[in-house]
Amino acid sequence: MAEGFDAYGCGQSDKKKVKEAYAEEELQEDLKAVFSKAKHPTTNFIIGHSYGTSQVIKLYNSLSSEEQRCVKGIVLLSGSLPGTNGGHPIFILPSMILDLLQGWMSSNFRKAAFHPKASEELLALAEARSNQNPMYMCKYFYEQTKWATFEEVKAVNCKALIVHGDSDRILNIEAGRRLHSAMGAKASFKVMEEVSHQVMEEDPVKLAEILVEFMTECLK
Q1: How many Å is the Cα radius of gyration of the chain?
Q2: Would the pLDDT of 5 be above 90?
Q3: CA dist., res. 69 & res. 23, Å (int)
């Protein structure tokens, strides 16, 4: 069984105009509640993408020893060490200014987050999705990001797989290599070719093969 987690404000979740609802501590409480409800008694894998990789690391470290034993591995897609707390400086601007810049920001995100070979259909879908997000939500979310520290990364003691696109222009591949290095021998690192930041959308078949290989190895 697989369970997906929409962080507050992301995907299909609510997007209320309440800054505190998007605080990192609130997101962690939500994520832990989802894990507690959905976890298998003996075998679990936790997967996060981009800033979600940091949330996965923090979640794992917050679990009890018994809960950690039932996590066979974590997967970190397009992650970073260190991350930039508070997000891009552009989110300092008032929401009304960000509203005016939204189309430009979505277009630039699309160019950075996808490889030049990505299909026009995929690019159009991504840009439309970005333009649906209210900018007050983006501002509240990114202003309160708190990436996992070096110490928190090192504290993870289960097997880990780090996957990064070779052409990532949101969080470059060296950020992924630093994450891998900090995790040490318990972690493996896979590079996906001709892929940028959105690895799960750009080449889902290749990513699925990588995940199956990692999970099979963890369960031996």
Answers
A1: 17
A2: no
A3: 28
pTM: 0.94
**pLDDT tens per residue across span 43-67:** 999 999 999 999 999 999 999 999 9
In DSSP notation, the chain reads -------TTSTTS---S-GGGG-HHHHHHHHHHHHHHH--SS-EEEEEETHHHHHHHHHHHHS-HHHHHTEEEEEEES--SS--TT--GGGGS-HHHHHHHHHHHHHHHHHHHS-TTS-HHHHHHHHHHHHTS-HHHHHHHHHT--PPPHHHHHH--SEEEEEEETT-SSS-HHHHHHHHHHHGGGEEEEEETT--S-HHHH-HHHHHHHHHHHHHHHT-
| pLDDT tens track for 201-210 | 999 999 999 9
**Distance between CA atoms of 160 and 180, rounded to whole angstroms?**
9
The pairing of beta strand 71-77 with beta strand 159-165: parallel
49-13-8 Cα angle (round to 5): 60
Model pLDDT, residue 210 = 98
Q: What are the structure tokens assigned to 78, written together?
A: 């397009």
pLDDT reading at 196 higher than 90: yes
